[in-house]
Fold this protein.
Amino acid sequence: LAPMRLYTLSKRHFVLVFVLFLICFALTVFIGIAGPRIISEQEHNGDQLLLKNNSVKTGPFNLVSPPLTTYNQQLWLTCVIQAEHSNMGDFQQPFEINVELKGVMQDASVMHINNVHQKSRTLHCGAKCDEIIVLHLGYLNYTQYQVVVSFKGLENITYEIKVKFVWKMYNPTFSQVEIWFRFVFVVLTFMVTCMFAHSLRKFSMRDWGIEQRWMSILLPLLLLYNDPFFPLSFLVNSWFPGTLDAFFQALFLCALLLFWLCAYHGIRVQGERKCLTFYLPKLIIVGLLWLSAVTLGIWQTVNELQDPTYQYKVDIGNFQGMKVFFLIVVALYILYLIFLVVRACSELKNMPYSDLRLRFLTALTFVVLVIR
């Protein structure tokens, strides 16, 4: 078998590995806290957006977004409706939002993007009213946007309301920091991948342990997870770079989930691991998780391209069913993983080398789960 450096590590080296990892993680967290804000916001009171003799309960409200660049990445318009002097406690009020969207070109010409979209929403108020997402643009085709918003169904309520609209977009300074961070991690991942491949070049793949085989898969996937194509988001006005980034992230995370199942099972099962009995059940469970995540992501992207006011949590009639299905598969995965961990611990606790691999894998898994 190809040698593992894990077998030559003392307890001091073990602790040093995890301490260095936690120091690097803490450093990135500190940079994130001390760095620029992720989201920039601009608020507007609804009273200031109305034409004369129009009610705040109906509108229309004429909004103009801040000037935008590709570094703003995405754009949200949210609405907060607050009841004034109301002692009604918790209440819900269904109503409709009409949204008309126009884009402003660099030469100041205005392009009509969509027809008026009408969406059913529910105003839910307790101590505060829930924020309502009016529209979301996953990529920015124009330097500015003009939006006309009107309500239908609030004109009959007896209490007075205040309306506030908030533009939200990525902070351009944060976008520049994100580009450099991703570039650094892509370079580091590439270097580690090359070093790993170089260290195992003398050994046949048949002699690799299950952890070594999985590292040869996870490291290239980690390279994609850090997304070397991320700068395309700022060079091309398209939905494709963002969708590609989400696809790579889902692919790596599901591969990591599959690795944990295979590693805990593979430590116990030596020799040939048959595809039908060893890999297929794990592929089905993790594949369903991956399929659920990718389906929701693609569904949201496709519908947002046609309708920026679309929200899958509200507008998909079967969203709750999809959510329940996803949670059932997650619960099934957790139970299967716990079963494999318990079996591995009970069978390998007296085997020196396997026990060492098991403890290191469990400690690493625990750290990753806490961080995630």
Remarks:
- The two ends are 33 Å apart (CA to CA).
- The CA atoms of residues 114 and 306 lie 8 Å apart.
- The mean pLDDT is 79.
